[in-house]
Amino acid sequence: MTLVGFMQAGNVTVYSGSWRYPSADLGFLTMDYYTRIGKVLEEGKFDCVFFDDRLAMPGVYGDSVAEAVRYGARPVKLDLTAVLGGIIGATSRIGVGATYSTTYYQPYHVARTFATLDHLSGGRAAWNVVTSVNDSEAQNFGLSAAMDHDRRYDKADEFLQTVSALWDSWGDGALIMDKETGEFADPAKVHEINHKGEWFSVRGPLTVPRTPQGRPVILQAGSSGRGREFAAAWADMVFTGDPGLEVAQQHYREQKEQIAASGRNPDDVKILPMAYVVGGETQAIAEEKERLFLDAYVHPVASLALLSELLNYDFAKHDLDDVVTDEMMAASSGIRGLSMGVRKHLGREVTVRDLAAHRATLLQGPRFVGTATAVADQMEEWFNSGGCDGFVLAATHLPGAFEEFVRMVVPELQRRGVFRREYTGTTLREHLGIARPESQ
């Protein structure tokens, strides 16, 4: 079972009420906060910890960032390079990943950043590839609105082709470093890439030699048809948001088939749904904690600020109890997909309040609640029934959610033989059981 810790370099986890939990650590502006979590997850023998990112404050709701700032709806996002550097220095085995956008960054910059991280970590770097969707992000990079969905993926395909060529612009064994002869490297093994495409023109070569992993591990979370096609072509780990086991099993089958159709080995790609774990010493304790997470700590306006940002739709024009209409769904394909999913979950008409609860609480992925035994039962069922290759675990609060999982659930998974007791390799690719790619 592959286990990945899902993080934010800011004031909240994916759960927007996390900062209000009584035992939550609010030291998110200090390096100790991140290195502590990295060490906890490494103690639990997690494959990887990776960080989500956004390049803007939520500012669609009411055409203002005010409510996001007021209620702590993800107004803080730190630069991830420095955060990962701190975790690399504090750990020795766990993989470390960051989200970088193919929409606003440049291939050379991203290739150099992740090649550097892979060297400095001894082969533990991962890149979570995203195509930025929010208008607020576009407006921080000189544009008025986000790019069209399919065009973003067209650009991302060329971006990955360019980055891959840069990572391979140094061959294995290029470094000689002979002090006696004065020969530093073999120029026959270092190549310009001379890429000229629709979006990018890059001469190369990269200023970073080929890395311990050959190429950093690629994560991707595209859920649309075009997104799944992109994941099949490029991803080593596919991050999904399937709400239930039956949906996950179908997604798993379809994605693996698509990977095979793209000419890759499906066993080399891990399919990992995001999940929450709410653990307790007894079932009653766990259920009470879950109730608090669902009811006590999330302000609905914070949720709507995040939802407006996600869907590029201003929910400030609606009351919380307004029913989601066909007109609203027509305004955003995201609203249609989200509302249909929530309607299936609730079994009734969906209101704006329902969408807010879905976004802000714990309803967007599987939620495993109970004792260590009960949680392990649920995770093992998903893993053994063709629903996934493991999980991306999101935290309800930090660092407690991960500390409790490592202390309570990991030993139970290890006892059952579905999770490692020790790392057997040093690189992230070795943790995942996928080969180091040959240089192209």
UniProtKB/TrEMBL annotation:
<dbReference type="InterPro" id="IPR011251">
    <property type="entry name" value="Luciferase-like_dom"/>
</dbReference>
<comment type="similarity">
    <text>Belongs to the NtaA/SnaA/DszA monooxygenase family.</text>
</comment>
<feature type="binding site">
    <location>
        <position position="224"/>
    </location>
    <ligand>
        <name>FMN</name>
    </ligand>
</feature>
<feature type="binding site">
    <location>
        <position position="99"/>
    </location>
    <ligand>
        <name>FMN</name>
    </ligand>
</feature>
<keyword id="KW-0503">Monooxygenase</keyword>
<dbReference type="Pfam" id="PF00296">
    <property type="entry name" value="Bac_luciferase"/>
</dbReference>
<keyword id="KW-0288">FMN</keyword>
<feature type="domain" description="Luciferase-like">
    <location>
        <begin position="30"/>
        <end position="386"/>
    </location>
</feature>
<dbReference type="InterPro" id="IPR016215">
    <property type="entry name" value="NTA_MOA"/>
</dbReference>
<dbReference type="InterPro" id="IPR051260">
    <property type="entry name" value="Diverse_substr_monoxygenases"/>
</dbReference>
<dbReference type="GO" id="GO:0004497">
    <property type="term" value="F:monooxygenase activity"/>
</dbReference>
<protein>
    <submittedName>
        <fullName>LLM class flavin-dependent oxidoreductase</fullName>
    </submittedName>
</protein>
<keyword id="KW-0285">Flavoprotein</keyword>
<feature type="binding site">
    <location>
        <position position="53"/>
    </location>
    <ligand>
        <name>FMN</name>
    </ligand>
</feature>
<feature type="binding site">
    <location>
        <position position="149"/>
    </location>
    <ligand>
        <name>FMN</name>
    </ligand>
</feature>
<dbReference type="InterPro" id="IPR036661">
    <property type="entry name" value="Luciferase-like_sf"/>
</dbReference>
<feature type="binding site">
    <location>
        <position position="153"/>
    </location>
    <ligand>
        <name>FMN</name>
    </ligand>
</feature>
<feature type="binding site">
    <location>
        <position position="223"/>
    </location>
    <ligand>
        <name>FMN</name>
    </ligand>
</feature>
<keyword id="KW-0560">Oxidoreductase</keyword>
<dbReference type="GO" id="GO:0016705">
    <property type="term" value="F:oxidoreductase activity, acting on paired donors, with incorporation or reduction of molecular oxygen"/>
</dbReference>
